[in-house]
Amino acid sequence: MREFGRIDILVNCAGTPEPAGSSILTVTATQFQDLIDAHLGTVFQTCRAAAPVMARQRSGAIVNTGSFAFLGDYGGTGYPAGKGAVNGLTLAIAAELAEHGVRANVVCPGAKTRLSSGPDYEAHIAELNRRGLLDDVSMAGALDAAPPEYAAPTYAYLVSDRAADVTGQIFIAAGGFVGRFDRPSPQILAYRDHHDAPPWTVAEISRKVCEQLRS
Predict the structure, then answer these.
(1) Dihedrals φ, ψ of 103, to 5°?
(2) What residues have CB less than 8 Å from 147, skipping those under 6 apart?
(3) Burial of 163 (0-12, 13-18, 19+ CB in 10 A)
(4) Is 124 exposed, middle or buried (0-12, 13-18, 19+ CB in 10 A)?
(5) End-to-end distance of the chain based on CA atoms, in angstroms?
(6) What is the C-alpha separation between 82 and 65, in angstroms, rounded?
(7) pLDDT tens-digit profile of 167-209?
(8) Is 74 an annotated catalytic residue?
(9) Which end of the chain has the lower number of beta carbons within 10 A, N or C?
């Protein structure tokens, strides 16, 4: 603000790996909190600082960095939880700031970085494959990721005027692949009006879930 008098762009791109072998069976409360602070806390702090400025000037673009890991396929605890929370926070920011002309989106990048290089990382990916969390195709992609230059254009697009109408979206930028996650929406398994019907029984819910999983 001292240098330019305004803030037009905020990009958050921070990450730290899980402790070696970390899982819900082994992670400590302190380790988990540190991971949440590193991934979610940093995003909150910078967005909290920049959002009022952008709202006053009626313009601005926020791009926060998520991760495929929010799906849980890469194991861990605080990393996927933090990145998943970044998604939710960004969607909420996008909804809150839309009336002020400010946009907010997420990019889930796939790129070769310090976090995705080296023997420890390779051993971690191989172990996830052995345990069945990652299939062979996903393992191959994780071990042969493109350099960050392939993810950068998606960030550049989202902060540009070309994306003036794009907000509240979660994008993927991994090598030559650019994609977008559909916004989660509930799928109806069963419905009855509570005004004239009793609650579903456990047996009825079990039957409905099994029918849906088989279809």
Answers:
(1) -110, 155
(2) 111, 112
(3) middle
(4) buried
(5) 56
(6) 11
(7) 999 999 998 889 999 988 889 999 999 999 999 999 999 999 9
(8) no
(9) C
Q: What is the pLDDT of residues 65-104, one digit of tens each?
A: 999 889 887 778 999 999 999 999 999 999 999 999 999 9
Residues 140-151: tens digit of each pLDDT: 777 777 889 999
The neighbour count for residue 211, using CB atoms within 10 Å, is: 11
Q: How many CB atoms lie within 10 A of CB 104?
A: 27
HEC secondary structure over the chain: CCCCCCCCEEEECCCCCCCCCCCCCCCCHHHHHHHHHHHHHHHHHHHHHHHHHHHHHCCEEEEEECCHHHHCCCCCCHHHHHHHHHHHHHHHHHHHHHHHCEEEEEEEEECCCHHHCCHHHHHHHHHHHHHCCCCHHHHHHHHCCCCHHHCHHHHHHHCCHHHCCCCCCEEEEECCEEEEECCCCCCCCCCCCCCCCCCCCHHHHHHHHHHHHHC
* Backbone φ and ψ of 109, nearest 5°: -90, 150
Exactly one of 74, 79, 150, 155 is catalytic; name it: 79
**Strands 60-65 and 177-181, sheet pairing:** unpaired
